[in-house]
Amino acid sequence: MAREKIPRQAMPEQDPEERRHNFNEVPYGYTPELAQIEASRCIFCKKPKCIEGCPVEIDIPAFIRLIKDGDFVGAARKIKEANALPAICGRVCPQEEQCEVVCVLGIKYEPVAIGRLERFAADYERENNLITIPEIEPPTGKKVAVVGAGPAGLTVAGELAKLGHEVTIFEALHQPGGVLMYGIPEFRLPKAIVEAEVDYVKKLGVEIIYDAVIGRYMTIDEMLKNYDSIFIGTGAGLPYFMNIPGENLNGVYSANEYLTRSNLMRAYRFPEYDTPIAVSKKVAVLGGGNVAMDAARTALRLGAEEVTVVYRRSRKEMPARIEEIHHAEEEGVILKLLTNPTEIYGDDQGWVRGMRCIRMELGEPDASGRRRPVPIEGSEFDIECDTVVVSIGNGANPLLPQATPGLETNKWGNIIADSKTGATSIPGVYAGGDIVIGAATVILAMGAGKVAAAAMHRYMMGIPEPVTEEESQQTEPEAKSSREK
């Protein structure tokens, strides 16, 4: 069979009826045989667009060829040349919107399953105890502080440690990983995998200090006295609410709190872990993104009899990954689309008992490019529920910016940083990830971390910033003019 006609290989996974009652990972991953079959579908383009589609620029055809040839460990090490967290990215990154969407094979057939192959290679290396630490450059004598042990911070730390700098991460929580640890459920990203990938970064020589809330524990100005450069990767951890009546009732959670209790603090293993969470019968989750799907699927596993996702647009506009929506529906989550809550109401003890909603229709596109939802007059109805999880997005936590004079932020509270370097308004201080661009994906945060790490290295070592082709063209006429004079 011609390789382009080989069907895309599905990953074996838990049966929906079984998995809705446990927190074990849903997909089992590829076997070596399936991975080699999938890798054989790649046509190894002369100009591979998939590399351009990857925010950290992994040499995708090279690692796929290694899998095809049976060199699974070589594939993992090839990925790690550009990405220190491949087992994580292979699980949670939206490859269908990045590297896979530009796969040439996808023009006529299904694209190569790049993310699944990345996961396979990383898992093979880890499960067979074949992880090695790359050669570290000689010590530079420079010290770097990284604020936040999330995807951006871990990437910066790993990149700069390999270049010989002494790196310390300051993490506000008691475990590393940021959103990887507190936000993404065990059934989608097992915590043991996050711990293993963080351990790899630590083996590069990175120190992590926990329970250190920068802005309280220490300020950026104080850190600048002891460190040659600082990276801020504090994420977007401030939950948004709808500002409708009843949001202060007992039983209303932000998705942040709901997922943090379950993921980081292991509420689902109570009383082994003493972090109680309300036992619910009927849960309503507000929102249509990946976090909403995570909250809904977590609610099922915590024992809810009925879980409904309430979203004000249609299925087409849902920002969640298609795979996550599919898994949620398979497990029994109900999607109530073109619906918007207007009020949450409770009993005389202050506990949630239901939610008033209104039906919506789609109008003209708004600034996001999606059709704007418009209320339909007289279409109000009630949803019975005892728990509401609000998952409509997050903003920047204002603590660190407010404690840092001279650090410029925009009207949303995000730190303003140069997109080409990550440089902020304070010399030597860089920022990247969700604290700069708002809540986004793990891989975009990692891409920003790589950019910032390269710029921080140049800053500390006194290396001039490279001149872009555009800048070069702008300066050429000026140089010519001066010569003519």
Please outline what is shown here.
By secondary structure, this protein is of the alpha/beta class.
Any chance you could write out the topology, listing elements then pairs?
Elements: H1 16-19, H2 32-39, H3 49-53, H4 60-68, H5 72-80, H6 86-92, H7 114-127, E1 143-147, H8 151-162, E2 166-170, H9 179-182, H10 191-203, E3 207-209, H11 220-223, E4 229-232, E5 238-239, E6 252-254, H12 255-263, E7 282-286, H13 290-301, E8 306-310, H14 322-331, E9 334-336, E10 339-346, E11 352-365, E12 371-375, E13 381-384, E14 387-390, E15 394-395, H15 399-402, E16 429-431, H16 434-437, H17 442-461, H18 469-484
Parallel strand pairs: 1-2, 1-4, 2-3, 4-16, 6-14, 7-8, 7-14, 8-9
Antiparallel strand pairs: 5-15, 10-11, 11-12, 11-13
Provide key terms for this protein.
485 residues; alpha/beta; disordered C terminus; 5-stranded parallel sheet; 15% strand
How would you sum up this structure, described in words?
The protein is built from 18 helices and 16 strands. The protein has 485 residues and is an alpha/beta fold. The strands form four sheets. A five-stranded parallel beta sheet has the order 3-2-1-4-16, with helices on one face. A five-stranded parallel beta sheet has the order 6-14-7-8-9. The protein is globular, with a radius of gyration of 24 Å. The relative contact order is 0.12. Mean pLDDT is 92; it is low at 479-485.
Strand adjacency order, main sheet: 3-2-1-4-16
Mean pLDDT: 92
Percent range for β-strand residues:
15-25%
For the biggest sheet, the summary is:
5 strands, parallel
Q: Mind telling me the C-alpha Rg?
A: 24 Å
Shape: globular
End-to-end Cα distance = 68 Å
Question: What is the tally of beta strands?
Answer: 16
| Number of helices, where a helix is a run of at least 4 consecutive DSSP H or I residues | 18
Which stretches are poorly predicted, pLDDT < 50 over at least 5 residues?
A: 479-485
